[in-house]
User: What shape does this take?
Amino acid sequence: MIIHFICRGNLFRSIIAEAYLNSLEVKGCSVLSSGSTATSDQGWNLVYYEKTLELLEQHGIREFAKADYGDQLTQSRLEKADISICMNRRIYDECVPIVAFPGGPRIWSVADLGEPGRIAHTASEEQLYREEAYQEIVWNVDRLVLEISAIS
Assistant: This one.
């Protein structure tokens, strides 16, 4: 089974989801991630990707992250997946004009940094929101794994 996580830049939420699911080493499951605006944003997103890697390191799962970031969502990437997950409704809305989902994607409610509810005004707030998003993603991935295990 192939799980495909989709966010905007493929540097934070989808990277976390991919690394965390990889860390669980679910038998018969492979993971990929993409971003709806990854190509256009890649150049200036390196600093944010590095912060994501630091967060993964703090949680002991850095080794499970893919080697790079900024993979653009394409129809061919989407068609490889058995389950596609948009990190929130905004992502889904951005994807609809550029790809056709084969079957319905799942839509989570994980807000990105800078979106309502996660607008940081200080470095400590930003770190808090990063951790909060991490925990939400872990919770959602754990639920997904339970569901996949029940199907298998």
